[in-house]
Design a protein that fits this description.
By secondary structure, the protein is an alpha/beta fold. The chain has 27 helices and 30 strands. The two termini are 45 Å apart.
C-alpha cells in the first residue's frame, strides 16, 4: 500500500514579525527638548560628500548636478549645504560699466575691489552735483568778467581800426559808405565831399569821371570783402581766447575734483576713464551752466540724462559680502540668469537704451561663488541651456539684447564681456540627468560631480537620534511642544513604513515634517504640554480619514455584493489577487477576483487585460513568465497545446506590474488540475520561470486592504494573505492588523515558491509531476489526458477511427477541466 503524502504545514508569521521592534525605553532622552535640533538631511553621506567635493574643488567643470532631492524648499536646503562647505576665499570683486568715449556703443567693463563700485558711483554723482554748482559760480566771478572785458576791448580796438582804415580808403576814393536795411553796403560817389543825391547828378558827370568812380567802387568792394574776412578771423580768435579762458577757469575747478577721485582708485581703467572724462567735461561746459526753462527745453527730449557719461552702472556689488556669495535663483529665466540690456520707449515712440540699462544676471552676481537653481525649470526657457554651457565653458559672460521672439532684431549696445568664475549647483530629476548625459556629451565635462540623494537611511541608533533631532528642530522652530519617547517611536515606525522596510527609515524630510506638524496641531488642540504617541496616531488616523473615501466606497461595494469577491469557501480556477491603488498621496490595497478558463486548442494564454488594452508592459511580461514556468515544468515530454485566459474580474481601469503573475498561475493550475483554492486567502507575488516567488511593492497596503475587506464582511478566523518570503523584511503593518494576527483572527503566510503557495491554497502537497495525490501530479495527469484526446482526434481525421472514451492510467474519465496555455502556442 502506497504511503500517504504528508499534509503540508505552512509557515505563518507571528505578530512580532509584522513590524520593526522599537522600544521607546531604549531612547536616551525623555523628550525632544533633550536633544540638539538638526536641520541637515538624514543619511545622505554620499550626496553630502559629493557636494563638498564640488564646492571645494576649484578646477574647471566641477559643477554639481543634484538628483533625487525632494521637498518644496530645495533651493534653501542646497544654499545652506553649500554655505556649510564653502571654502574661505577672498570676497570677489565688484563690476561696473562705464561710458566709452571712444566707442559709445561698447560700454567698458571695469573690475573694482569689493565695495568700490558703489563708492565710484557716489563720487561721480557728487562730481556732477559739484560741477553744476561751482562752474556757474566761477563764470560769475569778477576776475572772469574782467578777463572777458579785456579780451572784448582788445578785439573791439582791432575791429575798429579795420573799419576806420576801410572808411579812410573809401574817402580817398570819393565814395560814401551807405548801409542798407538788408545789411549790405552801397558805395555812393561823392562830389565836393558830398554824396550825390540823384541820378541826374551822376549823369552829368563825364565818361572819364564815371569810369573812375566805377573803378574805385570795384576796388573798395574788394577791400570790404577783405575787411569782413579779417573781422571774422578776429571773432574766431576772440572766441578761441575766450574758450581758453573758460577752459582755464573750468580746469581750475575740474582738475582737483577729478584728481581726488582718481587718487582713491588704484585702477588703470578708472584712471583712463577719468582722463577722458576731464576732456569731455571741458568740451561740454555749457551743460553745467545755469539753465532756464528755455534752455532746458532746448536741450532735447525730456527725460534724457544730460550727464549720462558721468554715470556708473554697478552690475556686481560685493560691498556687503564678507565671503564668496551663495545665491539662489528661483525663476531661472534667461534675463534672471544672464542679464539683459533693457529698452524703453521715449516720447517720440522710439526704443532707446544706454549703458545704464545693462542689468547683470545671477551668474554674474555669483561670480567667485555659487549659484543654485532648478535646471528643469531653466532648460525649458528659450536660449538658457546653450547660453549656460557657453558661459561654463568659456568663463565669460556677455550681457546682450535679449530678443528671443523678435521678428526684427534691433542693433544696440555691445557691452564688453566680463570674466566669471561661478560654480553652478543645479538640481533635477534622475531622468533629466540621464537624458542630458545621454544626448549631450558636454554635460559630463561641465557637471563632473553628481550628488545623488537617496530616499532612505538605516534605522540604527544614529538614524533614530537623527529623527529625534529633526523632530526637535521642527517643534522648536514652529513653536510646538516637545515630543515624548513614545511619540518619537511612532514617528520612527512611520519612517520605516514609508520605505517599507523594518531596518530602514525614510530620508524624505517633508513627509516626517508634515506628520510632526499635524501631531503638534492635535496636541495643541488638546492643550497637551507634550506631544505623545496618541497625538501621532490621531494625526495618522485623521490623515487616513481625509484620504480614504474611495477605499471605503470599494469596501462597501464588496460588502453589498456589487463587486464580487469571496472571502470564504473554496473555488476552482478562482483566487483573490491584490493590487494597489494610488489616490494622490494615499495608496491602499484592493482585492480583486482573478479567474482562469481553460480548454483544448492552440491559442496559448490569452491575457484578457492585454486584449482590452488595459494592461501595461510589465504585467504582460509577467504573463509570459508564467507560461515559461508551465513549459519548463510540464512541457518537457510533450508539447503543451491548449487555450486559456486569465482576467482580473470587474477591473475597468489599467493594471500594470508583475505582482499578480503567481496569482494568475495559481488560478490556472487550479483550473487545469480541477483543484479547489481557498477563497479566504488573498495572494500577491511575482514569480520567475523556475517558480520562485519574488518580492513585490506595496505589500503592507495589500495586506491591510484584504484585512479591512474581511473585517467589513466578517472575520472568520481563517482568513489571511499569501506573500513572498522576501517581503517579510518589508512588513510595517497597521496596529489593527498586528492585533488581529496576535489574536488568531488573521494570518499571513510567507512563501518562497509557487509550490508552497499552492500547498497553502489547496491543503495538498505540491509534489512532483507524476506523483499521485499532489498538486503537480494532478496537473500532469490533466495534461496527459488532454494530450491523448488531441492525438486521438488527429488520428480520427486521418481515417483511423473515432476516438473512444479516454482513461488516464493515473486518473478517471476524460471529463477533467482544461489545461493552461504555453507561450509558443500563444504566438
Amino acid at each position: 500500500m502506497t504511503p500517504k503524502t504528508p499534509q503540508p504545514q505552512p509557515r505563518e508569521l507571528g505578530a512580532q514579525e509584522l513590524g520593526p521592534a522599537i522600544d521607546p525605553r531604549q531612547f536616551r532622552f525623555d523628550t525632544t527638548a533633550d536633544v540638539a535640533p538638526l536641520r541637515s538631511p538624514l543619511g545622505q553621506e554620499r550626496a553630502l560628500r559629493s557636494i563638498r567635493l564640488g564646492v571645494r574643488m576649484r578646477a574647471p567643470g566641477y559643477n554639481v548636478f543634484v538628483v533625487g532631492l525632494t521637498g518644496n524648499r530645495k533651493e534653501a536646503l542646497l544654499r545652506d549645504l553649500v554655505k556649510s562647505h564653502r571654502p574661505k576665499l577672498p570676497t570677489p570683486p565688484d563690476w561696473a560699466y562705464l561710458f566709452n568715449f571712444r566707442d559709445p556703443d561698447r560700454p567698458r567693463a571695469v573690475r573694482l575691489e569689493p565695495g568700490q563700485a558703489r563708492g565710484l558711483r557716489k563720487h561721480m554723482d557728487d562730481l556732477v552735483a559739484e560741477l553744476r554748482r561751482r562752474i556757474p559760480e566761477a563764470f560769475r566771478e569778477e576776475t572772469f568778467e574782467h578777463e572777458k572785458e579785456v579780451l572784448s576791448k582788445k578785439y573791439e580796438t582791432k575791429s575798429k581800426a579795420l573799419k576806420e582804415a576801410f572808411e579812410a580808403s573809401a574817402s580817398e576814393k570819393n565814395l560814401h559808405i551807405q548801409p542798407t536795411p538788408h545789411n549790405q553796403l552801397l558805395f555812393v560817389p561823392m562830389i565836393d565831399s558830398k554824396p550825390i543825391e540823384d541820378s541826374a547828378q551822376y549823369e552829368a558827370l563825364s565818361a572819364e569821371e564815371k569810369a573812375a568812380f566805377e573803378e574805385n567802387q570795384e576796388a573798395l568792394g574788394k577791400e570790404a570783402r577783405e575787411m569782413f574776412k579779417k573781422q571774422k578771423t578776429l571773432v574766431e580768435q576772440m572766441g578761441k581766447e575766450v574758450q581758453e579762458v573758460v577752459r582755464l577757469y573750468a580746469g581750475r575747478i575740474i582738475d582737483p575734483l577729478v584728481e581726488a577721485i582718481a587718487a582713491g582708485y588704484d585702477n588703470p581703467r578708472v584712471g583712463e576713464y577719468l582722463k577722458e572724462l576731464r576732456e569731455h567735461t571741458l568740451d561740454v561746459l555749457e551743460r553745467f551752466r545755469e539753465e532756464s526753462e528755455e534752455s532746458e527745453a532746448a536741450g532735447g527730449v525730456r527725460g534724457v540724462d544730460r550727464f549720462l557719461e558721468y554715470r556708473v552702472n554697478v552690475v556686481v556689488d560685493n560691498g556687503d559680502t564678507d565671503s564668496v556669495p551663495v545665491l539662489v535663483e528661483e525663476s531661472p529665466t534667461y534675463r534672471n540668469l544672464f542679464g539683459a540690456v533693457e529698452r524703453v520707449v521715449d516720447e517720440t515712440g522710439k526704443l532707446v537704451t544706454d549703458f545704464t540699462r545693462i542689468k547683470g544676471g545671477k551668474i554674474l552676481q555669483a561670480s567667485g561663488g555659487f549659484l543654485v537653481f532648478n535646471l528643469e525649470d531653466a532648460i525649458t526657457e528659450p536660449l538658457v541651456w546653450k547660453s549656460l554651457k557657453r558661459v561654463l565653458r568659456s568663463g565669460l559672460i556677455s550681457v546682450d539684447n535679449y530678443q528671443p521672439l523678435s521678428f526684427f532684431a534691433v542693433a544696440g549696445l555691445v557691452p564688453e564681456p566680463i570674466p566669471v568664475d561661478t560654480r553652478v549647483v543645479v538640481y533635477g530629476t534622475p531622468l533629466l540627468f540621464q537624458m542630458l548625459r545621454y544626448w549631450d556629451p558636454e554635460v559630463a565635462e561641465l557637471f563632473k560631480v553628481v550628488a545623488d540623494f537617496g530616499y532612505e537611511t538605516d534605522r540604527d541608533d544614529d538614524g533614530v537620534l537623527a529623527y529625534a533631532q529633526r523632530i526637535a528642530h521642527i517643534a522648536g522652530s514652529e513653536g510646538m511642544p516637545p515630543f515624548d519617547r513614545a511619540a518619537v517611536a511612532d514617528l520612527v515606525r512611520f519612517g520605516a513604513r514609508r520605505v517599507e522596510h523594518k531596518q530602514k527609515l525614510s530620508a524624505i524630510l517633508e513627509e516626517l515634517d508634515d506628520l510632526v506638524r499635524e501631531a503638534g496641531f492635535f496636541a495643541a488642540d488638546a492643550d497637551a504640554p507634550v506631544v505623545g504617541a496618541a497625538h501621532v496616531r490621531q494625526a495618522l488616523e485623521d490623515r487616513y480619514f481625509r484620504w480614504n473615501r474611495v477605499e471605503e466606497k470599494l469596501r462597501e461595494l464588496i460588502r453589498d455584493g456589487t463587486i464580487l469577491l469571496d472571502v470564504a469557501g473554496v473555488k476552482v480556477g478562482q483566487v483573490n489577487g491584490l493590487a494597489v491603488l494610488a489616490m494622490g498621496e494615499y495608496a491602499f490595497g484592493r482585492p480583486s477576483r482573478v479567474t482562469a478558463s481553460l480548454g483544448m486548442g492552440s491559442a496559448g494564454i490569452v491575457n484578457i487585460e492585454r486584449e482590452a488594452n488595459l494592461s501595461g508592459s510589465t504585467h504582460d511580461k509577467g504573463v509570459l513568465i508564467l507560461t515559461g514556468f508551465l513549459r519548463n515544468r510540464f512541457g518537457q515530454k510533450r508539447p503543451l497545446a491548449f487555450s486559456a485566459s486569465v482576467a482580473f474580474e470587474q477591473s475597468y481601469s489599467g493594471i500594470d506590474g508583475d505582482s499578480a503573475s503567481s496569482t494568475e498561475l495559481y488560478a490556472l493550475l487550479s483550473r487545469l488540475g480541477d483543484i479547489p483554492l481557498r477563497q479566504d486567502i488573498a495572494v500577491t507575488g511575482s514569480m520567475n520561470q523556475i517558480g520562485e516567488v519574488q518580492a513585490i511593492g506595496g505589500v503592507n497596503e495589500k495586506i491591510e486592504g484584504f484585512f479591512r475587506v474581511c473585517r467589513e464582511v466578517g472575520l472568520t478566523g481563517s482568513q489571511g494573505v499569501l506573500i513572498p518570503e522576501a517581503n517579510v523584511r518589508h512588513l510595517v503593518l497597521h496596529p489593527e492588523v498586528v492585533d488581529a494576527v496576535a489574536a488568531g483572527d488573521f494570518h499571513i503566510y510567507p512563501v518562497a515558491d509557487v509550490d508552497q503557495g499552492m500547498e497553502v491554497l489547496t491543503g495538498l502537497p505540491a509534489g512532483k509531476p507524476g506523483q499521485k495525490g499532489t498538486v503537480n501530479g494532478l496537473v500532469e495527469a490533466a495534461l496527459n489526458r488532454i494530450d491523448r484526446r488531441l492525438r486521438d482526434r488527429d488520428g480520427g481525421r486521418r481515417g483511423k477511427g473515432a476516438p473512444g472514451r479516454d482513461k488516464d492510467a493515473r486518473g478517471g474519465p476524460d471529463d477533467t477541466p482544461p489545461r493552461p496555455p504555453t507561450p509558443e502556442q500563444g504566438t
